[in-house]
Amino acid sequence: MATFGTVDLGFADLMLSGLVNAAVDGSPSNPPSVHAINRVLAAVTGIGAHDEVEGMLATQMVATHFAAITLLRRLKGAENIPQQASAGSLAVKLLRTYTMQVEALQRYRGKGQQRVIVEHVHVHSGAQAIVGAVTQGGGVQSKLEDQPVAPAITHAPGQTLPSEIETVGEAVPSSGG
Predict the structure, then answer these.
(1) pTM of the prediction?
(2) In whole angstroms, what is the distance from residue 6 CA to residue 58 CA?
(3) Are 49 and 55 within 8 A, CB to CB?
(4) Backbone dihedral angles phi then psi of residue 73, each to the nearest 5 degrees
(5) Residue 123 neighbours by CB under 8 Å, 6+ apart
(6) DSSP line for 13-39
(7) Are 20 and 34 in contact (CB under 8 A)?
(8) CA distance 124 to 109
(9) How much is the CA Rg of the chain, to the nearest whole Å?
């Protein structure tokens, strides 16, 4: 039950039977071996499901992986181009699906990469701003720690800077006309 992240025996049984049906060779007349069942259980255990959602995703991941490996084995033994194309195409789809499942598990566990882009920052008179990465302990890790400090930019009241509308002096000719 811990393998599938549950305390419910019925859920664990459902996941195990689905996993055995999808990832282990066997038939009613030739049931899968204990060794084969233990291999797929070890793979699910390695993912370390913490709850039922992770248990279902882990089961899907292992089944997808085994199906992809089976198709890669068929690709290796394919005797003609159509067989190679079919097995190769399905294997690629399954391998991409597996990658998406891993990413889904990481997002579910909160390990998905997050990125915040700040485009405009306004610091008003009397306010403070921090440039750098703020840690949870309240500290600041600045990329500018070892950089020389530039003089502050100040503004003198009554003094205006030229804009595109008002030009100071004569225009300078450019080579592009």
Answers:
(1) 0.61
(2) 12
(3) yes
(4) -65, -40
(5) 129
(6) HHHHHHHHHHHS---SSSPPPHHHHHH
(7) no
(8) 39
(9) 31
Provide the token pair at 64.
């997808």
66 contacts: CB under 8 Å, gap ≥ 6: 22, 23, 24, 40
Q: Alpha carbon of 61 to those of 55, 102, 105: distances in Å?
A: 10, 8, 10
Lowest mean pLDDT among 4-18, 107-121, 128-142, 145-159: 145-159
Is-contact 48 61, C-beta < 8 A? Answer: no
Q: Can you read off the two tokens belonging to residue 56?
A: 């279902």
**Per-chain mean pLDDT for the chain:** 82
The position carrying tokens 């300078």 is: 172
Contact 15, 59 (CB under 8 A): yes
Between CA 70 and CA 103, with CA 95 as vertex, the angle to 5 degrees is 140
Residue, of 58 and 120, whose pLDDT is higher: 58
| Short-list 10, 22, 96, 93, CA closest to 59 | 22
DSSP one-letter code for 166: S
Stretch 80-100: mean pLDDT: 96
Q: Which two tokens stand for residue 155?
A: 């503004």
40 near 23, Cβ under 8 Å?
yes
Is residue 160's pLDDT more than 80?
A: no
